[in-house]
Amino acid sequence: MNKEGIAIFWFRRDLRLEDNVGLFFALESKHPVIPLFVFDEEILDSLPKNDSRVGFIYDSLSKINQKLEEIGSSLLIKKGKTSEVWYALIQEYDVKEVFFNKDYEPYAIRRDLAICELLEANKTVHFSFKDQVIFEEKEISKADGLPYTIYTPYKNKWLEKYNSFCPVQEYDASKYFSNFYKTKFSFPTLKQIGFEENPTKVIPHNLKNIVHYQEIRDFPALDATSYLSPHLRFGTVSIRKLVNWAANKNQVFLSELIWREFFMQILFCFPKVVTQNFKPAYDGIQWRNNEDEFKRWCSGTTGYPMVDAGMRQLNETGYMHNRVRMVVSSFLCKHLLINWQWGEAYFAEKLLDFELSSNVGNWQWAAGTGCDAAPYFRVFNPEIQLKKFDEKGIYIRKWIPEFDLEYGKPMVEHTFARNRAIETYKKGILK
Ligand code: FAD
Predict the structure, then answer these.
(1) pLDDT digits over 326-383, tens only?
(2) Is the CB of 246 under 6 A from ligand 1?
């Protein structure tokens, strides 16, 4: 065993050195800090070998490692089952303290509990921190202590609390960077981790349009949203810095960041939403679940240009504009009467910004089964959505080059599908 007492900071979904709460407290402690990232086989084994999210994680870690090398330190990268990796680490080093930022997903909560038990058995002290949200867990609750399940009162309480002590504190650890453990660990190639390069890359985030956000955000051809979602998912951007900035720039944009936290608290308080309807009354809906129709939806060949353009954008880039996500999800659940879980799983596989809480929350919103969801009788008309939000067809022509030549007929007529959906929901919703 290496005799020197050390601390470990465990990076997970907080891939940055700046304003990182757990890292700040690790560096402030008295032991030299080894920065660690574990490629968790229990997550990776189910992913394709060219998964572009793994590529993004890898690139983000390379950037961190480069900065660390400039100050004589480096990242320790491991791959394996987290419990086995940690077991080996505490044999190899005299690990006095472990620091990490909390993750609120059910798998991560189970994993972290197991690691903490292992550390405790080794008499290693561990500390966890709130980092990926402004308000976590049950910090925003109703007067009776129960969680909010409706967005607007949640947002009001969130804003009231934020405004009472804004700006939120940021954690600049750069003054402690000399406390990183000084060594050069070897940095693996992506191939050594078992993955391949994917040309699909995360788009850099862009805040230049945020001043006019509310006027332009719904028009997919304008490319005017922030593209922050994968950066927030993997923590390459700090939510504190972002919210402190956004609060002075645009309240509508801020309210979108609050939706993100709303769905995170829903997932934390009601983890069953991952596999079950938030509203059990909707359990009786008789989904049609036609596999051929699902395939047409996935491949963007439904004959509805707005739906098809969105699905093709997703398949080609790992991203889809929010307005179009609303249209395609409504189409799958209502027009085709396919269980939201099929769509959720497809998005989870394809989205570079896949975030369990937001994905489940928004899919259940579209299906009407979620908390504060779209009412069952609200069925988006994909043609009207196209006229409203892409009148000149710029977005659809970008993703459907053959559009101007003869474009296929819709796979199901709108009024028929709308009536069928409303009837099916009416029959299925338990009184
Ligand atoms: P902007 O409009 O610039 O918004 C800024 C940030 O606010 C986003 O990055 C995101 O963190 C947050 N945000 C915006 N809208 C929402 C919303 N409706 N719910 C929660 N947070 C929001 N977002 C994900 O991050 N991951 C997902 O897996 C995901 N799945 C979705 C599935 C469906 C069916 C729908 C309708 C929406 C989904 N969203 C998801 C929400 C939203 O579409 C994306 O966050 C947004 O399109 C990302 O682009 P942007 O960063 O440019 O957004």
Answers:
(1) 999 999 999 999 999 999 999 999 999 999 999 999 999 999 999 998 899 999 999 9
(2) no
Q: How many residues does the chain have?
A: 431
Question: Can you tell me which atom of ligand 1 is nearest the CA of 356?
Answer: 28
Distance from the CA of 224 to the center of ligand 1, in angstroms? 13
The class that CATH gives domain 280-428 is mainly alpha
Delimiting residues of CATH 3.40.50.620 domain(s) in the chain: 2-131
Question: In which residue ranges of the chain is CATH 1.10.579.10 found?
Answer: 280-428
**Distance between CA atoms of 277 and 118, rounded to whole angstroms?**
35
CATH superfamily of 2-131: HUPs (3.40.50.620)
Q: Which two tokens stand for residue 35?
A: 């920065």
Q: How far is CA 415 from the centre of its chain?
A: 34
DSSP letters, 354-418, are --HHHHHHHHHHHHT-STTPPPTT----HHHHHHHH-TT-HHHHHH-GGGGSPPPPPSS-HHHHH
> In one letter, which amino acid is 214?
Q
Give the model confidence (pLDDT) of 65-95 as tens digits: 999 999 999 999 999 999 999 999 999 999 9
Say if CB 7 and CB 98 are below 8 A apart: yes
User: Coil, strand or helix: which one is 4?
Assistant: strand
**Residues 127-176: tens digit of each pLDDT:** 999 999 999 999 999 999 999 999 999 999 999 999 998 899 999 999 99
| Predicted TM-score (pTM) of this structure | 0.97
Quick check: CB of 329 below 6 Å from ligand 1?
Answer: yes
